[in-house]
Amino acid sequence: MSAPSAPAPGGLAGHLDGFVRAVREAGIPVGISQAVDAAEILTVVDLLEREQLRHGLAAVLLQRASQRPAYDTLFDLWWPLSDRPRTGSAAASEEGEDGEPGADDGSTMDLPDGHGDGDSRDIAQRMREQLARLLMDGDDEALRRFARQAVEQLGRAPASPSGQAYFGYRVMRALSPDTLVSQLLAGLLGDGGRGGLAEQVARQTVRERLAAFRSAVDAEVRRRAATERGRERVAKSAVRPLAEQVDFLRAQQSDLAELRRAVAPLARRLAVRLSARRRMGRQGRLDFRKTVRASLGTGGVPVVTHHRPRKVHKPELVVLCDVSGSVAGFSHFTLMLTQALREHFSGVRAFAFVDATDEVTRFFRPGADVSAAIARIGREADVVAFDGHSDYGNALEVFADRWPAAVGPKTSLLVLGDGRTNYRQPGLPVLGDLVRKARSAHWLNPEPRRLWGSGDSAADRYGEVIDMVECRNATQLADFVTTL
């Protein structure tokens, strides 16, 4: 196995410190004790075994599986494959007799440094054939070494004033690994034929090996960029935000599944906290008669007070959610959280609006899929009255007229939206009446606080009537719900 390109032993502590700092800056919480454990890992693992080092540091630095992609990206930047093959017995299989990397293991090949179109096509074709053999063998280490060679030969772009640049898409375009699927399937299945479980397993194997090759190419491009520009600069653009740090308004389709996995355990933890807080609530009203009787034993001094049993009422929750296109991602996750908290409220009623309001509680029955429920809201709910653009004033008036008893002294009101009214009437008097009737009222706004009141935003004016809370990601959502 190729060794990591690590600093000299004297600088190993500083190198590890820089790596831990980068992990922390990526949003992964790393405490002092974990950093100490990471230093201890360096004394018990073989530093020449790169994957052993990777998994050892991950075991002490990570708490959740969702943190692994960001960690792996940073590890590849701080602990890249060595530019030179290892010496000793491990190097014998990787080097020829002249000390240069050999091709007898099927992972490297001698290629001309041609500059013409014919030479380039010849190089790409030979490397494509080599890639097919490596994918068939499934040797991850050989595949990584081949990826480094492919980036060097095929990923190089014309030199720029800032230095040599390499791009992964150039490698993928030249090798077209996705077009090798049929060839790989035929090789894996042999004479067994197509269909059935065998083909499903073979297809999954091909997908995994192709994904591993793409990851290896991306890692090599980042390594070369880090050599030119510095690890810290590359890390800022290469590491994707963790699921709990992704802005709801900017979440892409690829982020949705990960965000759903992040919100689900969050809802369970919040549910436990809410239940505990109610159990530790204040006692009921003073029972004057029992207190006086008990004081007779202490000379009339009420040393011990007695209280009537507190009547525990699960509060009611009303969610008023903007489902217009501008905040669709935000409403998705807040409604998911609302559904998860239903068991802690005597009644949860959900209302959606764009420029009109409709009750959508029926779409969020226990066990219902939130994505399907939101899709049904778009098809079946009466949330558009005029032009389909947000109209908070009309939506609030419709809600107050059609459901006047929805908000009462036991109700917690939760409004979800960005407060952008398209320069229409904001409906402040109606909102003020709802807030006064409710037991508590909060507004979660997915826009940064600095944008409140800019353009058509009436968030600053709404904030004078209701408690307006910035809630741009799952972390801020967790901070808010713990205060309910």
UniProtKB/TrEMBL annotation:
Superkingdom in the source lineage: Bacteria
Ranges annotated as biased composition (Acidic residues): 94-103
InterPro entries: UCP010256 (IPR011195), Uncharacterised_CoxE (IPR008912), vWFA_dom_sf (IPR036465)
Compositionally biased tracts (Basic and acidic residues): 112-121
Name of the protein in its database record: VWA domain containing CoxE-like protein
Region (Disordered): 86-121
A Pfam family assignment: VWA_CoxE
